[in-house]
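Example record

The entry below shows one chain as it appears in the dataset: sequence first, then structure tokens.
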Amino acid sequence: MPIPRVSDEDAWALYARAIGHRVRAARERKGLSQDRAAAESGISRTHFQRIEQGMGNGSAANPSLRTFARIASALGVEARELLPPSNVGEDG
């Protein structure tokens, strides 16, 4: 029996959650609260929280490249460290 294919939307939602987990782990390693990390990133705490959860306005979080770079900088990591492998959510 074939494995059901994950839709592009579902795959992006899984990828966004994986990014969120990496953002949260980096924030916690640095010992920052969400408030502090958001302030240092130049975004609201609510926006930062949604990115960590992988959700935003009812769909997968999709921060701008500028916001993503600011978050990485605030967390003291390279942006690429926040990106999971590209095959997250694929059916293999």
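Notes for this example: Strands lie at 55-56, 59-60. Residues 14 and 89 are 6 Å apart (CA to CA).
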